[in-house]
Automatic annotation (TrEMBL):
Residue ranges of every copy of the Dienelactone hydrolase domain listed in the record: 38-237
Protein name, per record: Dienelactone hydrolase domain-containing protein
Gene Ontology MF annotations: hydrolase activity
UniProt xrefs under Pfam families: DLH
Length: 240
């Protein structure tokens, strides 16, 4: 079961925000930012609120400013979770939008990006998106991954990851509490051939990197720290 943390601070959806533009990639509506001539691509996988929230697109623009072509696909095909629709409980919605379907959506997108010239693809998953990002690292469809305040990711899935992975977790998070994150670290430490980084951020809660209050200086600072680590991780493993 999924608790209230996943629903905290629901964003205002606005498909017109961001400096990028909307396009279709492998049949999936996507927000893209950065030069299409960039040979390094980052795919951002959203939380349950989909690809329209302004803060998510702001993150995409920030990553693009570091020389990447950034793609934020609509993994929910026009049906993000609507916190105001009480007639559709979250657990019911999740049955129709699980990580298996996430992989089915992601695979042709990544293949299309590589056909168009992407020499390497990194993936970052937020909350719901973390499990799909983790599974992409198991299949080696991407060259590096970052998962931020993950939801539903298991120890066995982390054990199966075959690409460099960074895990950015929250101190206050019932989905992936510090005890579980420490197990993730133990598993990764036992695989020194796979570069990994695990950090538990103090005094933050689930969703803090993508659903923060832009008018709260501390919240902005905490989110920016995570974004910087994410970008540095991609720089380290994709800009070779």
């Amino acid at each position: 079961m999924v608790g209230s943390e996943c629903l905290a601070n629901p964003p205002i959806l606005n498909a017109s925000t961001g400096v990028g533009y909307l396009t279709n990639i492998a049949g999936v509506n996507s927000y893209v930012s950065g030069s299409p001539l960039a040979i390094l691509t980052i795919v951002l996988i959203s939380d349950i609120f989909g690809f329209e929230p302004p803060l998510l697109r702001k993150i995409a623009d920030k990553v693009a400013n570091h020389g990447y072509f950034v793609v934020v696909p609509d993994f929910f095909h026009g049906e993000p979770y609507n916190a105001e629709n009480a007639s559709r409980p979250l657990n019911s919605w999740l049955k129709d939008h699980n990580s298996t379907k996430g992989i089915e959506t992601a695979k042709p997108i990544i293949e299309a990006l590589k056909r168009k010239g992407a020499s390497a693809v990194g993936v970052a998953g937020f909350c719901w998106g973390a499990r799909t990002a983790t599974k992409l690292g198991i299949t080696k469809l991407v060259e590096a991954s970052v998962i931020l305040h993950p939801s539903s990711v298991t120890v066995d899935e982390i054990r199966g990851v075959e690409v460099p992975i960074a895990i950015l977790a929250a101190e206050h998070d019932s989905f992936s509490p510090p005890k579980l994150i420490k197990k993730f670290k133990q598993v990764l430490d036992a695989k020194p051939e796979i570069d990994s980084y695990v950090k538990i951020f103090a005094n933050v809660s689930h969703g803090w990197t993508v659903r923060y209050d832009p008018n709260d200086p501390k919240a902005v600072k905490d989110a920016r720290k995570a974004h910087k680590i994410m970008i540095n991780w991609f720089d380290r493993h994709l800009k070779k």
